[in-house]
Amino acid sequence: MSRPQEPNRPFFHFGNPFRMISPKCSQLSSRLLSLLKNFEATLSERLKKLVPKDKGDILSLSWMKLAMESLSEIHCDIKNLITELDLPVTDWDEKWMDVYMDISVKLLDISNAFNSELTRLNQGHLMLQYVLHKLESNSPNQFTRATSLLDSWKQHISSKNPRVETCWPILDNLVGSLNLPMVKNSSKGKVLMQAMYGAKVATTYICSVFTAAFSGSAKFLLDLTVPNTLPWTQVFLDVQTVVNVEIRNIFFCGKFTVLRELEAVDACVKKLYLLLQDGAGPSERESFRKSVSDLRTTEEKLAQGLDNLSKVIDSFFKIVLTGRNALICNLRNANDAAANSMIGKNVKEQLVR
Question: At what angle do helices 285-352 and 61-85 cross, to 10 degrees?
């Protein structure tokens, strides 16, 4: 999805980073002001969802699914806003087009990287399925093979995915260009750019959380600064503080993984591995059976969580791709219409002569 032949453009390569596009929105009509306020109020509500009642849920696969669903909703809100603004593609400033196209291609790349990590984790799920098949056969001859498979699973899960590492340069580029641009001579353009700025802040932050979780490194977790003049600023900063503190606490503990469901599976694997190493005698048989059952339960929960998260990331990918393709198609149609109009004009002039 990347375009290596093109230089990386900053997302907003113009304007003062922390200057409002319209200081008091005095230039906006009541309708446009209402559209902007509704978008930003909805953005605040979507961000609030990221703070669960129990902080222990942060970095669970169910919480990550909720975060990606919120991100998809934000991008759908942008698409709906563009429709409501009724801003023909022919009226789009070239800089606005760069904004939309640049972030879309970056998000497609990031989505592909996330999906590659989910695929890798699912491969670990298949390995554990085979282990459980061996252990539930109750054949002592299978125990040695199961121990070897558990070693392979540990090595597989603890390995790094180079695809996830590619997300950092993309995020770094987006962060370096996070600013709120000045837009002149277009009230609709002002609304569009301010809304897209909010969507970009939320997108960059949430993607940084996923990158940190999948890479196992807190260095990818961002602390973004945004203008305090926006109605959703305080909500975003509150969310960022709560989520970042909890995630950094998880990393500080130095656990095998920061993903909650995967951590539960690892705990079961460690217990079962020790029993296999020591040999499950008559007194340990009940403990052994329970350990196998616990691994089955936690592994199934992990597999379901991975599947659900994969589906919402696929959905997000399609939302971004559909919006991008629609804009390209509209631009192409507008150019074709302009070209046909020019041809018709030339033919008419020739007939007159």
Answer: 20
